[in-house]
Amino acid sequence: MTVNDITEILEDLAPLHYAEDFDNVGLLVGNPNQNVLGILVTLDTLENVVDEAIKKKCNLIVSFHPIIFKGLKKITGRSYVERVVMKAIANDISIYSMHTALDNSNIGVNAKICSMLGVQNPKILIPKKGTIKKLTTYVPKTNIEELKNALFNAGAGNIGNYSNCSFSTEGTGTFKAEKNANPVKGTIGAVHHEEEIQLSMTFLSQKEAQVIATLFKHHPYEEVAYEITTLENVNQNMGLGMIGELIEEMDEEEFFNHLKTKMNAQGIRHSAFLGKKIKRVAVLGGSGAFAISAAKASKADVFITADVKYHQFYEAENQFIIADIGHFETEQFTKNLLVDFLTKKIPNFAVTLSESITNPIKYF
């Protein structure tokens, strides 16, 4: 299998199309056509991780965090980022990053946290906007079913928990084939009237190229009239953070012991206890303070995230508890998720969980 083959599999889990605009995801180092001998999965790609990949004969590193985040103007080995890139290139090792593409997946980072904590039926905390589009086209009545079914098979017509969704309006289309045309309907030089259907259906933006290619392939006309618009609908199956409920409510101290144990947290920074039971739990792996208001609006009893600043703890306003368990701690099990996913998709391939310690924060 090539690097490109592996990355296509990973995009089924976390399409890069849905990464945040500020992010740097995808293949960061390497040749997409290189044959892969083995895959090393890690949270961060540091020099010790590249050394581990060399030792274990893995020439593709699948990393959650991107090692290249800002543009590199020079690669001279003066920074840890430059040294990682140089060592990877020197040893023909490719590096692929997923980061916020996996954050936005409903089976990604935050789903893993919920699984670790026993949070049931989690829903997206901040659904992603701008990911649902609508195709509108015009097709002869005699060809409508063939085109609809082809588009459905290409992934169009899906919204939320529904599939094969479309809307049709009957009308009459007119056109005149000019000199160099090759009309399927009508004759050159004459205005033709055709009983047509205006067909509309939604699709996820990641499917746009596939949907358009299918439209051109199965539409009978030589020239296909169509339009694509972005809908205001939020995508309930994609976005940042999750919220769900524990099977049984817990006392605050009991829940925090549970949280500390399950997430291997060395310490928890949190807002004041409120003397209430914990039942409804919101989570957002990594730097998630921007979602405090969303967690509050969702009526969470506790919001688990990382990198919360001093004044942001005030935003709890004695309505719920904000718990900062550490950046690494919220994302540490992501590499286990990726190993499990790849092992199921390519069971006879060498997929290895990195043993390198990459957490830069130590506790005294």
UniProtKB/TrEMBL annotation:
Q: What Pfam families does the entry give?
A: DUF34_NIF3
Q: Which SUPFAM superfamilies match?
A: NIF3 (NGG1p interacting factor 3)-like (SSF102705)
Entries under InterPro entries matching the protein: DUF34/NIF3, DUF34/NIF3_bac, DUF34/NIF3_sf, N-reg_PII/ATP_PRibTrfase_C
Q: Which keywords annotate this record?
A: Metal-binding
UniProt similarity note: Belongs to the GTP cyclohydrolase I type 2/NIF3 family.
Q: From the Swiss-Prot or TrEMBL record, give the protein name.
A: GTP cyclohydrolase 1 type 2 homolog
Q: Which organism is it from?
A: Croceitalea marina
What is the phylogenetic placement of the source species in the record?
A: Bacteria, Pseudomonadati, Bacteroidota, Flavobacteriia, Flavobacteriales
